[in-house]
Amino acid sequence: MNVKDKTILITGGAGGLGSVMAEKLGKNGAKVFILDLMEDKGREVTQALKDKGIEAWFCKVDVTSEEDWKSAIDYAVEQTGRVDVLVNNAGINIRKPVEEMSIDEWVTMMKVNTGSTFLGTKYAIPVMRRQGGGAIINTSSVCGLIGHKFTPEAYTASKGAVTMLTKAIASRYAKDGIRCNSIHPSTVDTPFVRKNLEDPVFRSQRLGEVPLGRLATSEDVANAVLYLASEEASFINGVALPVDGGVTCY
Ligand SMILES: NC(=O)c1ccc[n+]([C@@H]2O[C@H](COP(=O)([O-])OP(=O)(O)OC[C@H]3O[C@@H](n4cnc5c(N)ncnc54)[C@H](O)[C@@H]3O)[C@@H](O)[C@H]2O)c1
Question: How confident is the model over 228-249, as pLDDT tens digits?
Answer without folding.
Answer: 999 999 999 999 999 999 999 9
